[in-house]
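ugh ok so i messed up the first submission bc i forgot one of the chains. this is the corrected input, ALL of the components this time, i swear. 1002 residues overall. if the numbers dont match what u have on ur side tell me asap before i send this to the collaborators (the ones from the other lab, u know who)
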Amino acid sequence: MVCSWGGYTFIINLIPMHVLLCIVTGRFSSRLYIAYAPLVVLGTLLAALVPVVGFNAVMTSEHFASFLVFIIIHVVAFVYYIKGILSPKMFKVAVTLVVSVGLAVCCAVIAVLIALVASSPTKGWSGRSLSLLDPTYASKYIPIIASVSEHQPPTWPSYFMDINVLAFLVPAGIIACFLPLSDASSFVVLYIATSVYFSGVMVRLMLVLAPAACITSGIALSQAFDVFTGSIKFQLTGASSNTEVDAAETSSSTAESQTDAVKTEKPEETAKNRPSRKSKKKEREHGEKPSTEAKAEKKRLLALPLESSVISLLLLVLLGAFYVVHCVWAAAEAYSAPSIVLTSRSHDGLHVFDDFREAYAWLRHNTDVDDKVASWWDYGYQTTAMANRTVIVDNNTWNNTHIATVGTAMSSPERAAWEIFHSLDVKYVLVVFGGLVGYPSDDINKFLWMVRIGGGVFPHIKEPDYLRDGQYRIDSQATPTMLNCLMYKLSYYRFVETDGKGFDRVRQTEIGKKYFKLTHFEEAFTTHHWMVRIYKLKPPKNRIRGKTKKSKSKTSSTTSSPKRSGTKKKNPWQ
Amino acid sequence: IDLSSHIVKVYLTLKVENAGSTPTSEVLLSFPPTQADHLATVEALVTKGKRKKTTLVRLDVKATELPDAPNDAKYFTIYLANPLKSGESTTIEVLYLLTHSQEPFPAEIAQSESQLVYYRDSALILSPYHIKQQTTFIKTPSTKVESFTRVEPSNRAGTEIKYGPYEDHPPYSFSPILIHFENNSPFAVVEELVREVEISHWGNLQVTEQYTLVHAGARHKGVFSRVDYQSRPTLNGASSLRYLLARLPPRVHSVYYRDEIGNISSSHLRTDSRKSELEIEPRYPLFGGWKATFVIGYGLPLQDFLFETSDDRRYLNFTFGCPLLETVVDKLTVKVVLPEGSKDPSAVVPFPVEQHLETKYSYLDVVGRTVVVMEKKNLVPAHNSHFQVYYTFKPIFMLAEPLMLASAFFLFFVACVAYLHIDLSIRK
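and heres the new structure output, hopefully the right one now
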């Protein structure tokens, strides 16, 4: 999992937590040691082989939990071993000795560790992990992480949308895990508890909640099925035979079910061991008659009436069917939209908005191979793949300062933006504009994040400059900084000519500045529904105004300087 | 001379008189070398009979004459069906098509300007024979003509310019004229087209065509303003390519139109019993110098195109050329993929092409399929005639693929059965 996602830190912290839990609840066994210790060693070694992780596998705080528990499990194993070979009195002596020495050593080690950890500003945790532990961290310090919509906390309806029926089966499963509590079921409980917390912090971690929810609700459902089918079997066979048969039947029926609702005893175990129960039923009947009579009574009380169990079974199956239907629908509607091709239904059929591909195809065929395209980082991978052109920033969001540069350029007035883009050797600027068709995820809606991210690195971009009374507007009440910034101009250039008033369908207002010209950019391409607009940087002027005037004034001043006795003008060219 | 589209169509009506003493059956046509490079087809017809029954007289390959050809003029010979006796005269209709002969001037235009082109020709046709009388009519697409060379007597009326009649000119006389006029018809040029026709004896003919389309008119400079383009399309982008029409055979199925990125959804297919029409719109309108690439594929029923000759050879009868109307193809490659097991392929094409053979490996192929590759340059829609590819195929080879599949599954099942029943334990 290290190779695929950074979320592997969740796993390598969950497993040590579970091991610790097992030790604390007294479930230490050689099995646990054999399972855990090689995992840590091999896992860390293999994780360090992945280029992105490298030495982070031993240096960042996210991995320290596994090492700590590694040490603890060794200590515990040693303690148990010593306990086994020493007598109790000797054991006490050894314990006091070890505790005193060990405590001193531990303190020293922990002090060193704390010093090491405290020396890094984030205490060794990476920004992404910190934003999970402290949900407000990202919005204060790392606006890029805060700007991704998948990093926001989920709403309650989104839980129901994603895991649907499982939302109320999970608590039932948790209860089922406690009857009885074994190593495996305690892991499941821990897994579901932590993943519920984390998915509450960030909606994209629903991904982590989903398997845990499936496991626990599967346990709950299987318990329920056991009870119902057991009762049906009990009722069907109990009604037509005598008590002995009942006993045998119930013992065999409970043996067939995989429940651990009641503590299992030897008869059931022996019954389980036999593969073909039907042929051996008669033997069991005779062998276990006396011991199982008491059991039979108990079981008969636990059995539910026949009709209700049949109906409940059917309802459970129906529940499963509805769940499948919902999942298929959710996958089709919410998770299958490619978000590159948008469709809308109108009275004359399906209308397709293929603007993104149109723009990328235009870029691919009608620009030079070396031309660089600047856009917001959301479209980086798409531009690289479909338009086959170099981009300035892309979805990897690897270099925060670079993204902040692009954000600053988008928030600056035209001339300053031109300077920034010219220094980056950009030829084309791409903006996404949804105002004509009502596409809500366009760059004007994302613009405040550009301001925040740019302002995080370049302090001359201040977010309040773009807000009027704390509100983000683009109509006539917008601030002058907003109306003059590059993003506004590139999005709304000649937009007023489409309908005469410049009504933006997404923001539902008319735009503030309607008639303006672009001085440093020219429009290279706009797609059919105006969703993607591509502008070309105008080349720098050959002659720079002002310098020639200065030299003229210099020559005039030198001719007249013998007359003047006052201050000598400083020559700007030397 | 018809200048209404970017392919120049020239119709000559020649009344040829044999002034010599011997009967001849050859008439020479000559062209200046610049025109000869752009010549796509030359056809000659002779009208016979009272009801305008036309018989097509075949045209021969050009043969450059002996050094008395002034300035490397190129020649075409027309062979008459009946030799012309001395003193007789006959009327021949000649049609030739020129491509890339209209040069856009100004070479770069903005979006709101209309496209003006130059056409260079001669008021008198370059002829190795003495010209007794000649009149030239030139038809321009619109009434907007910037200038035209005046060679007396010349006259312009509406969309037609008339040069002539000229009397008694010696052979090889040439009077260059230059016409500067507006031509907003779409200058669609396919730079490269690769057509692959795959024959499958199970009843389907699959055609895949890969296009590189370019707008060969005046290059686009400056801004492209979508608002201007959408609000006043006749004024802005009058010469842009908005859509193309492709004529496909009837009973076509599974038509797809996609490019490197994915499917292009702006296309319409209209079929009827005699032909199918596919109207495709490229993803963006093409202005001068803009390119687009796409792939069109479709399937056809095999029985419309595959036939058998009397001596047990099969042949495929298919159209050679681009199905797009009014487009010039600079380089066309037609590949006919014959099914596995075909032998002795040979192609019969009505005009000269370069041929060679290749092998292609496809599904369930052991030895590979033979591919007949034909290449030709400078095609026009008039080249959309039929060509034949002959090959021999023993029907027993049809069973090769089913037998291969059946035997594979059979061996697999036998292996499973054997594995389940073999007892490999060492001790009982």
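quick check: Chain B has three helices and 29 strands. that seems consistent at least. Chain B touches chain A at residues 222-227, 230-231, 259-262, 264-266, 283-284, 289-293 (CB under 8 Å).
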